[in-house]
Amino acid sequence: MVYDVIVVGKGPAGITASIYAARGNLKTLVIGEGYGDLIKAKEIENYYGFEKAISGKDLLDRGINQAKNLGVEIVEDEVVGISYDTEFILKIVKDEYKTKSIVLATGAKRGSSKIKGIEEYEGKGISYCAICDGFFFRGKDVAVLGNGEYALSEVLELVPIVNNVTILTNGLEAKETRHPKISVNSKKIREFRGDTDKLSSVEFEDDTSMDIAGIFIAEGTAASTDLAKKIGAEINGRFIKVDENMKTNIPGIFACGDCTGGLSQITKAVYEGTKAGLSAIEFVKKINHI
Length: 290
What we know:
Elements: E1 2-3, E2 5-8, H1 12-23, E3 28-32, H2 56-69, E4 73-76, E5 79-85, E6 87-92, E7 96-99, E8 102-104, E9 126-127, H3 130-133, E10 141-145, H4 149-158, E11 164-168, E12 182-185, E13 189-194, E14 199-204, E15 209-211, E16 214-217, H5 224-231, E17 235-236, E18 239-240, E19 253-255, H6 266-287
Helix pairs in contact: 1-2, 1-6
């Protein structure tokens, strides 16, 4: 099955986009995991239409149920990759879905790793996208920083290309893997080192080190910007660059909510979700010649 639109993220921005897409007669799927930061809000008193305070969880549940009532399919899972082959392909942990268009709405990463050397060696051996940059490390020893499903998906992208891949968990637990080209190092990392032009090693807090040609950052779950990078969408810092209609530079890819920057409010997320949903309708109708 090929969906008309898949929305990544089930917060206010993503669910609003799905509601408008469904009302526009698009076959719509939402993929999201958990509730996000809004679950922490115990009382919301400044959202239109609620004379009494409502919790973040209640507001989210109402939106999700509203979308379901309109025929939107909801999948509770983590998107770990995006690619394109006549249609967009969204990869989740153990499956994949095809779609004509995508709305990215998983929010923005609130922080990044503080390991010394990450910023210094970005583009000089440190990358955020295995499918984009793996080719440059063909036949070399590389590492992936992370310990979840997102990190493992990056590892599996690299295995056919590189010599060996080490999963750097930085002191956290990781799933066991049985592959001759994959190893796990759970030591705490002190810094990434190299010369002025290129990363060359990882130094651990126990004063040991490991020579490495490249490191791919894949901590936690993939945010909208991580997914956008994989498909070539333009990024502005830690946010996705969109126009006034929530369109990215990639036809058929839209973004809304916290991942586009600006005011971090539900009202802003709903507004942008509306525009993203309407833009997806316009795009799909055009390619379907409706």
